[in-house]
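Researcher: I'd like a candidate sequence for this fold, 426 residues long. If you have to choose between options at a position, lean toward the conservative one.
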């Protein structure tokens, strides 16, 4: 949570295998000063268009590997041609055209895909804005989240195909090797093909049954953009998809609650770092820099009832108020822990109680949350213990704990924030 030094915040630009490869050598024909700018433009276009391109090609061809390969080849061609020919007026449309033409070439050589070629030609004309319920990426997410797939496979497949997250990054998030994750993704796509899982948004009872899995994927996608070393475009993409889902299911409170939660968290994106790029805890942020329009929209969207996402959104709303009502936050975490007793929720509950009442109360709850080992070497758990220890008056131990948290932190921004807090207490 934002109150602990080193907590999550948006960070680096979008990544892509072709971009990563290009980063180590200048593109052909590029002037040395212009090359980094072109790569940045390509990266921005990929972040905006990758999911749309892959989803559209899967819808038309039914071939997941072909769609991903063609999208990646379009990026490679852009890195070769844009430094020479100039950046096109519509970078995303250019990538879509190149990917589509590549798919046509592959299918034409296969000669057995003439019907699909005819369907693919539809993409030759500028496509009208799709209706919300026919959004290709939403269709792709529901397919990725089909219950026939294991939960980890659903999340990994969505991150890879919708958000374009490199397989190596997904592997790190799941604590497996890249080759293991590649095999998992291949098995998932093969199962979709062999089981003839339909590429569509379900309706009726099936839609309600599939919804929790979709919300979980959107939540992880947003988190991916919210992390200090994450991809900010992912957070924006998660918000966009949550809006589409809200239109699709206007009577489902957890959908509206998830959108409200995203908006409240994202409203602080510009205030979470100082002018030097250092992470700022909630109590040190300039609230005038928060996006108050987003906060107002979130409060209008937040339903009166709901489950875990509604409780999290209400907690975020408390943080967005002029003054933070810690006793109310602690009470909301008590209720959230009943629905979702995960180690991270228990950690945040401990912090809330430590701020609302006595630091010793928070430390006692934190010790209980650590039972079972779910928070072992989790840097935010160590940072939380450090902050509560400082509030209890033991500055020397708090400094040691902040230094220990920095040693196990996953990003440089978090390490810097934790060490700054340690220095402040020294």
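Model: Candidate sequence:
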């Amino acid at each position: 949570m934002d109150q602990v030094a080193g907590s999550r915040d948006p960070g680096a630009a979008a990544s892509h295998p072709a971009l990563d490869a290009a980063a180590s050598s200048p593109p052909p024909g590029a002037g040395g000063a212009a090359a980094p700018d072109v790569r940045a433009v390509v990266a921005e276009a990929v972040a905006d268009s990758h999911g749309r391109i892959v989803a559209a090609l899967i819808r038309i061809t039914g071939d997941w590997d072909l769609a991903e390969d063609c999208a990646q080849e379009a990026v490679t061609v852009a890195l070769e041609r844009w430094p020479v020919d100039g950046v096109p007026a519509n970078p995303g449309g250019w990538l879509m055209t190149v990917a589509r033409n590549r798919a046509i070439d592959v299918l034409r050589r296969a000669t057995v895909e003439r019907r699909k070629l005819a369907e693919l030609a539809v993409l030759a004309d500028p496509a009208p804005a799709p209706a919300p319920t026919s959004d290709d990426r939403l269709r792709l997410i529901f397919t990725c989240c089909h219950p026939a797939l294991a939960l980890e496979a659903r999340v990994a497949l969505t991150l890879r195909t919708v958000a374009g997250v490199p397989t190596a990054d997904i592997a790190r998030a799941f604590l497996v090797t890249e080759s293991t994750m590649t095999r998992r993704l291949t098995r998932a796509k093969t199962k979709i093909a062999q089981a003839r899982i339909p590429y569509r948004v379900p309706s009726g009872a099936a839609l309600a049954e599939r919804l929790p899995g979709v919300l979980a994927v959107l939540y992880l996608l947003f988190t991916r953009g919210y992390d200090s070393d994450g991809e900010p475009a992912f957070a924006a993409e998660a918000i966009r998809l949550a809006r589409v889902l809200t239109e699709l299911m206007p009577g489902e409170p957890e959908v509206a609650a998830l959108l409200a939660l995203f908006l409240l968290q994202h409203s602080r994106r510009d205030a979470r770092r100082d002018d030097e790029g250092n992470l700022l805890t909630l109590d040190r942020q300039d609230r005038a820099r928060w996006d108050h329009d987003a906060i107002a929209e979130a409060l209008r969207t937040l339903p009166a009832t709901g489950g875990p996402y509604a409780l999290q959104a209400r907690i975020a709303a408390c943080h967005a108020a002029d003054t933070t009502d810690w006793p109310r936050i602690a009470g909301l975490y008590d209720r959230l822990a009943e629905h979702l007793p995960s180690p991270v929720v228990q950690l945040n509950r401990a912090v809330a109680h430590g701020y609302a009442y006595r630091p010793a109360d928070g430390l006692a709850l934190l010790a209980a949350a650590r039972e079972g080992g779910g928070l072992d070497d989790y840097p935010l758990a160590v940072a939380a213990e450090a902050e509560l220890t400082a509030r209890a008056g033991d500055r020397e131990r708090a400094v040691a704990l902040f230094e220990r948290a920095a040693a196990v932190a996953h990003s440089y921004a978090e390490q810097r924030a934790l060490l700054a807090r340690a220095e402040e207490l020294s």
